[in-house]
Specification:
Number of domains: 1
Number of strands: 5
CATH architecture: Orthogonal Bundle
Distance between the termini: 17 Å
CATH topology: yeast vps74-n-term truncation variant fold
Structural class: mainly alpha
CATH superfamily: yeast vps74-n-term truncation variant domain like
Shape: globular
Length: about 200
């Protein structure tokens, strides 16, 4: 649980950048420094995404993917804001209670299993089937699941082993367009920052 609490902000930061890239609000230039440039500050209708987009729009000079990952991980109440957004969509439910009968706490149990089931099916299709091209968001999800070691907890490791080269091609962006490649880079930048910070505190 502690590991998840530490990793979570980085996964969300990567997902924010991924969404902004796939919605053509930002682009990444300079292959070495991976600098983020604004394309459009038109709102997306999601409060958290729009707040992050405005932060990028207000900067005088471009910053790198890694810089934005670090900033977005520091957003106050990030976990609750993401969870409450899912509550608004009917996927989670907010419950207030206590821990050890004294300490207040808020939990977000899942009430609609459909979205999670569809995500798992998309991953299964991407990994084990060759017939369909992999869409950008599925490629990013697979990159996240692969880089964090989640795949063996979702699927049988024995089934994954013969598909590893196929997974690597997707994660490296070989089967997707430029925007998706940049989105995968954003997620990988987030995970790299997580690894660096984990090393510094251990």
């Amino acid at each position: 649980m502690l590991a998840f609490q530490f990793e979570y902000p980085y996964a969300v930061a990567g997902a924010i950048l991924e969404e902004l890239l796939l919605h053509d609000r930002i682009r990444v230039e300079d292959p070495n420094r991976k600098m983020v440039h604004l394309v459009s500050d038109s709102p997306l209708g999601d409060p958290l995404l729009d707040e992050c987009l405005q932060s990028i729009a207000k900067t005088e000079r471009p910053d790198s993917l890694a810089d934005w990952v670090e900033r977005f991980t520091s957003i106050r109440h990030l976990k609750d804001r993401v969870a409450e957004g899912l509550c608004d969509r009917g996927i989670l439910r907010k419950e207030k209670g206590t821990f050890l009968f004294v300490f207040p706490r808020v939990t977000y149990p899942e009430v609609d299993h459909g979205p999670e089931g569809r995500i798992l099916q998309r991953l299964r299709t991407a990994i084990f089937e060759e017939s369909e091209p992999v869409d950008a968001r599925t490629a990013v999800l697979l990159s996240l699941a692969s880089s964090t070691g989640m795949l063996p907890t979702i699927f049988d490791p024995k089934e994954l082993k013969p598909r590893q080269e196929h997974i690597d091609r997707i994660v490296q962006g070989d089967q997707v367009g430029q925007a998706a490649k940049e989105a995968i880079e954003a997620m990988q930048a987030a995970l790299a920052m997580m690894t660096v910070n984990t090393t510094l505190i251990t």
